[in-house]
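## tool: complex_structure
## caller: assistant
## args:
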Amino acid sequence: MNTVILSPKDQRERFRNNLEVRNTSGLCEGFMQANLVILPKEYAFDFLLFSKRNHKPCPIVDVLEPGAVKPKVADADIRTDIPKYRVFKSGELADETTDIKSYWRDDFVSFLIGCSFTFERALNEAGIEMLHQKEHKGVAVYITNIECKKAGIFHGPMVVSMRPIKKSEIVKSIEITSRYSHTHGAPVHVGDASLIGIKDISKPDYGDFIPYDENEYVPVFWACGVTPQAVALQSKPSIMITHAPGYMFISDKREI
Amino acid sequence: MNTVILSPKDQRERFRNNLEVRNTSGLCEGFMQANLVILPKEYAFDFLLFSKRNHKPCPIVDVLEPGAVKPKVADADIRTDIPKYRVFKSGELADETTDIKSYWRDDFVSFLIGCSFTFERALNEAGIEMLHQKEHKGVAVYITNIECKKAGIFHGPMVVSMRPIKKSEIVKSIEITSRYSHTHGAPVHVGDASLIGIKDISKPDYGDFIPYDENEYVPVFWACGVTPQAVALQSKPSIMITHAPGYMFISDKREI
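## result:
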């Protein structure tokens, strides 16, 4: 664990200079973290429209103009200040790197997308514990049969994260997360996983399943920021760059 | 006044067949009406990003794919079902017409933008009267010194509509309209017009000024759907098509 809490700027500088390469969970507490999707301008309208039509899985918090490298939400360089990036070519992983300067093009449009760290913190503050946090595991993530609303070349199923919530805290969990529309908002489903096309809840597509007592807990499903990446990859853009899972962009913006 | 209340579909059919050419104020009550902006695809990303960054003046309610003529919010043809259109070339009015089929191109992207009719109705239902309605005039509209957030080629000042509201009803007016984020939301300013760059409140840039008793009323300013048109025109796109002021698109969607 970090003993010194760095400012977002100092933490990003460590990433930029490759003094540290780690996932950003728990770093710079209280500051908004974000998912990253970079696409060439030719795909940018379709992707922005997709995010507008699918606000829960794809809540945009910042869009950089074509070629721009400095976000509005942080005094940062989008090409260097994330600890780890993934480069996809025609839908296939082509590189994992700590710096994308060599890939950069003037027609690249960067999208920053809200992440569930914000609402998890809000749930914690309301006294709602999350099992995966207690066990220091990744949250369980599933591909559902909920179709996203299509936009241009982008279409595909919604990806969700699941957190077991105590039956007595379900309403409170929904109330709280519904206030965070820029970080996925209210759940998309509560209870029976088969209704959204999840065959075996104990086998998530990503992350870890934490066993829970069904008498006490109910699975609650939130739209997940992995969705836009998954959907974008399906349509095989010539090039697309994202953060590596868990290696998020840390902004200068306070979580609200 | 209409004696028979037509369904949106029947009313649009009358427009489509040019059986009627009139402004849509008061028509198909309870159904959402919308502003229209049509731009070639090359401008679509910038415009969508502009609307995202300037949600109050530019609340998008529907975006059609390039070349598509059927909105999601109505069983309609965007090229014929508005009573009157305006065609602008390089920022200049080139034509006013009841049908844009002859202008249509496969790369045209149509944006439908929320309109204040919805929140005016909500205010009415809460017992808040609007002076311009009582006098059957147009609402007063002003160009302000509030700069919109730039996106690509699109930038310029926010345009606002002003309604004098009774001092005792200001809080209620703000509470009510803040619920209607898809139709401009809460006001952008209350009171002293000079603070937002309006030199003479009795001389609106568009519409009619209705004199009011300053002891009883305060001017309240809402972001106006004219903004995106005004801003888009400033940047002189090669072609842009809009509805004619007051001649709105009537959707099949209930106002909520």
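## assistant note: The helical segments of chain B are 8-16, 41-53, 117-125, 131-134, 170-178, 226-234. The interface with chain A takes residues 41, 44-45, 48-49, 52, 60, 63, 65-66, 109, 151-152 of chain B (CB under 8 Å). Handing back to user.
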